[in-house]
Amino acid sequence: MPINHEHQLALLADILSNQQTDCCGSVAECEQIERLITSLRSNEQIDQNILPILEEVHRYSEQGVTASNLDTHIHSHQNQLSQWVDGINNLS
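Above: the chain sequence. Below: its structure as tokens.
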């Protein structure tokens, strides 16, 4: 059974929050982020104001998949991760 967009946004915020807190993550998490965002972009029920955040997170995730050191990539985006999580929580 597919999850609705509220659950997708909560899952996205959880993954990003964990990466921000732990300063580490996996390529699989980045790929999951990309799948969530692809699904959310096609959902007309989401608040359109969240789309810029989703675009930024998608770029971050794409870069994470190909980063030579994912933990360094995550560490260098600590401020953005916090802002994205706050934005997602406020707009969802």
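The chain has a mean pLDDT of 95.
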